[in-house]
Amino acid sequence: MTTTITALRGTAILATALALPGCVAAQHAGHTPTLPGIPASIRAEHQEIHARLEAAMKTPGATGRAARELAAVLHPHFQREEQIALPPLGVLGPLARGEFSAGMRAVLPLTDSLRAELPRMLEEHVAIRAATARLGEAARKENQADAAELAEALALHAQGEEDVFYPAAVLVGDLIRAHP
Ligand SMILES: [Fe+2]
Ligand SMILES: [Fe+2]
Asked: Is the pLDDT confidence value at 41 over 60?
């Protein structure tokens, strides 16, 4: 369990690092474009889920067990999401305002990876949904209101990603690539 918690913390740190104002540079020599940061609102949502899940993992009984099982499937998924799916959303605002800079092309390797990995990420959502449902069931049975609410919030989070975040990130890549 300690490993999982540590790993979750690592993911939160990664999320924070990717969201530093002014973007995190893809560190190569010369005028290498910088990667956009994860939008602060999305970063905050991920961090809140991490924090609430960590708390749920410490709950005794079936709720804690279900939370730890959920963390095992959620952690690698969140980590990959924070690497390739969420940073491209950092350029949505400028793109929507018609602003373009050559530096935005730095997201193309990310959006290409997202497009390629999307089927797997959606499969992971199926596993995450199942583990989330088990957490919700256990939490309701054991009157663990916080964990039950977390399960609802996480199910909604995954749905929001499928409906909006993932498609938007893929479209960011298409828009940038199509730019002359
Ligand atoms: Fe997520
Ligand atoms: Fe996700």
From this structure: yes
Q: What does pTM read for this prediction?
A: 0.80
Indicate which ligand has the atom closest to the C-alpha of 15: 1
pLDDT value of residue 27: 37
Mean pLDDT for 24-37 is: 52
Q: Which ligand is nearest to the CA of 122?
A: 2
Tell how far the Cα of 116 is from the centroid of ligand 2, in angstroms.
Answer: 15
Indicate whether 69 belongs to any domain. Answer: yes
Q: Could you tell me if residue 136 is inside a domain?
A: yes
| Ligand 1 centroid, distance to 46 Cα (angstroms) | 6
What pLDDT score was predicted for residue 33? 55
Within 10 angstroms of residue 39's Cβ, the number of other Cβ atoms is: 18
Report yes or no on 88 lying in a domain. no
Can you tell me the distance from the alpha carbon of 91 to that of 164, in angstroms, rounded to the nearest whole number? 15
For residue range 62-81, list pLDDT tens digits in order: 999 999 999 999 999 999 99
Q: Which domain holds residue 68?
A: 2-19+35-83+93-98+107-178
Query: For all residues of the chain together, what is the average pLDDT?
Result: 85
Residue 26 lies inside a defined structural domain of this protein:
no
Where are the alpha helices (H) located in 19-107, listed in sequence order? 40-57, 61-80, 92-96
In total, how many domains does the chain have? 1
Measured CA distances, 13 to 9, 48, 87, 119 (Å): 6, 13, 14, 26
